[in-house]
């Protein structure tokens, strides 16, 4: 009898771009679904965003030395891999990196990763309309190779390409002080005795301003729209997310009348301090956009070492003029904590499209108009809550779609879903912002 009839079917090969949290979740999910993963990582280690370097590296996310998670360890672990008992509730980046490495070793994932390998291009195979296959070109030690894969999982993160809107600030080209994006900030020592302007009231902007204010002469944060500022420590000393990210809170939000729900939300946000008194009140106070997590900022404002100002109207050679007419003189440095843009330089722009600075992906994962559902973006979604369990669920679903055990809706249904969510965001323009910074464990 012909033994060829009894050969096991070939495993579907999946290329995974990036070996951060999302990449590791994707490798594990592929293995569980009987797929054959190959992960390409441009650095020499796992961890992605959480692998600290004392200088910003091209093509990689960058964090500053003092970054702590904003989600507690109880809420942000892989479902089957809890943190060690002796880890603190909110972890320094080095602790999270330690956990990520332990996970990769425990799950035997490292052998599927090609380190120091850069993905230069991903293109549809000539027969893509029937096979859904992709041609992936990589480079290592100056040598390029191209291989064909049945599917792609993009896990390269969204804190790589800084958004630096210099054109939005008249006169900035005349400013003689130092200007740089928060991506390049590492530690506060060099700003001792300086006068520093931070543009942006996101997590990184607040973290950097509060940290620098301990050594600088004066720090000002310029904010266009304000923000809710939350503490990691919530009622009765519990981590905030153990009390806020609950089924009961979601039930209240979804079932209470809008007026009561909004009142309750604002009451919670103002429980620690009244934002209006600190110049932090969001323009749309009931908008449920992602809050900022900072335990120190209100105290630094009360001490006068940090001041909150509105948007910058214009720059001069040495100062900034704000929209309220006040002026910050003799500025030594401007730090743009203005978030990040979406970019996939290894992909043709026609594959992953965007509208209103939002990538059009079904459920934040699948490009809806591909002939075959063989590409998934993992870890791009921005949610109020921990990233690790979110990306883990995304990877599990994507692997099932790639394997063929789970089907996506029609293109029309997917586009309708995207349009509906985009319509809701257009009603609240503040939600149409670029991905903020990497200091929040909520995303990261």
Overview of the structural elements:
- This protein is α/β, with parallel strands linked by helices and 444 residues long.
- The protein folds into 2 domains: 9-160 and 341-431, FAD/NAD(P)-binding domain, CATH 3.50.50; 164-231 and 272-338, FAD/NAD(P)-binding domain, CATH 3.50.50.60.
- Helices cover 24% and strands 19% of the residues.
- Strand 5 (134-140) and strand 6 (143-149) form a beta hairpin.
- Helix 1 (21-32) packs parallel to helix 9.
Q: Helix fraction? A: 10-25%
Number of helical elements? 10
Total individual domains = 2
Q: Roughly how many Å apart are the termini?
A: 55 Å
CATH H-level superfamily title of the largest domain: FAD/NAD(P)-binding domain
Per CATH, the class of the largest domain reads Alpha Beta
Layout of helices and strands, plus pairs?
Layout (H helix, E strand, L loop, with lengths): L12 E5 L3 H12 L3 E5 L52 H14 L6 E2 L3 E7 L3 H4 L2 E7 L2 E7 L1 E4 L6 E2 L15 E4 L13 E5 L3 H10 L5 E5 L6 E2 L9 H5 L2 H9 L2 H12 L22 E2 L3 H6 L3 E4 L2 E4 L4 E3 L4 E2 L4 E4 L3 E2 L12 E2 L2 E2 L15 E3 L9 H17 L7 H16 L18
Parallel strand pairs: 1-2, 1-7, 2-3, 7-22, 9-18, 10-11, 10-18, 11-14, 12-13
Antiparallel strand pairs: 4-5, 5-6, 8-19, 15-16, 16-17, 20-21
Helix pairs in contact: 1-9
Keywords:
444 residues, alpha/beta, FAD/NAD(P)-binding domain, 2 domains, five-stranded parallel beta sheet, 10 helices, 24% helix
Compose a concise summary of this entry.
With 444 residues, this protein is α/β, with parallel strands linked by helices. The chain has helices at residues 21-32, 93-106, 128-131, 203-212, 240-244, 247-255, 258-269, 297-302, 387-403, 411-426, and strands spanning 13-17, 36-40, 113-114, 118-124, 134-140, 143-149, 151-154, 161-162, 178-181, 195-199, 218-222, 229-230, 292-293, 306-309, 312-315, 320-322, 327-328, 333-336, 340-341, 354-355, 358-359, 375-377.
């Amino acid at each position: 009898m012909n033994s060829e009839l009894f050969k096991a079917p070939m495993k579907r090969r999946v290329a995974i771009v990036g070996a951060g949290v999302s990449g590791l979740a994707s490798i594990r999910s592929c293995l569980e679904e009987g797929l054959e993963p190959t992960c390409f990582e441009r650095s020499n280690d796992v961890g992605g965003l959480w692998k600290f370097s004392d200088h910003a590296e091209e093509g990689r996310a960058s964090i500053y030395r003092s970054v702590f998670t904003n989600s507690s360890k109880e809420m942000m672990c892989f479902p089957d891999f809890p943190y060690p008992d002796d880890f603190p509730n909110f972890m320094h980046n080095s602790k999270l990196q330690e956990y990520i490495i332990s996970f990769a070793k425990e799950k035997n994932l490292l052998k599927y990763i090609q380190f120091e390998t850069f993905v230069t291009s991903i293109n549809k195979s000539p027969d893509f309309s029937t096979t859904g296959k992709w041609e992936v070109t990589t480079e290592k030690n100056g040598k390029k190779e191209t291989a064909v894969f049945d599917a792609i999982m993009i896990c390269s993160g969204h804190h790589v390409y800084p958004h630096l809107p210099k054109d939005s600030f008249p006169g900035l080209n005349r400013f003689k002080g130092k200007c740089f994006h928060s991506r390049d900030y590492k530690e506060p020592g060099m700003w001792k005795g300086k006068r520093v302007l931070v543009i942006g009231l996101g997590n990184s902007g607040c973290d950097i301003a509060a940290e620098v204010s301990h050594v600088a002469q004066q720090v000002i944060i310029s904010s266009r729209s304000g923000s809710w500022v939350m503490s990691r420590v919530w009622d009765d000393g519990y981590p905030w997310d153990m009390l806020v990210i609950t089924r009961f809170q979601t039930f209240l939000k979804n079932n209470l009348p809008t007026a009561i729900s909004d009142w309750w939300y604002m009451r919670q946000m103002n429980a620690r301090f009244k934002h209006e008194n600190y110049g932090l009140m969001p323009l749309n106070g009931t908008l449920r956009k992602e809050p900022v997590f900072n335990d120190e900022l209100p105290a630094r404002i009360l001490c006068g070492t940090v001041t909150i100002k509105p948007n910058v109207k214009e720059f001069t050679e040495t100062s900034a003029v704000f929209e309220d007419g006040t002026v910050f003189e003799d500025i030594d440095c401007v730090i743009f904590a203005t978030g990040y843009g979406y970019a996939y330089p290894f992909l043709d722009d026609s594959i992953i499209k965007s509208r209103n600075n939002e990538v059009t992906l079904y459920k934040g994962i699948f490009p809806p108009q591909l002939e075959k559902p063989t590409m998934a973006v993992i870890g791009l979604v921005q949610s109020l809550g921990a990233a690790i369990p979110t990306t883990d669920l995304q990877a599990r679903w994507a692997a099932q779609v790639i394997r063929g055990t789970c089907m996506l809706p029609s293109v029309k249904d997917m586009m309708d879903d995207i349009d509906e969510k985009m319509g809701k965001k257009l009603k609240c323009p503040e939600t149409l912002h670029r991905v903020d910074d990497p200091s929040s464990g909520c995303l990261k």
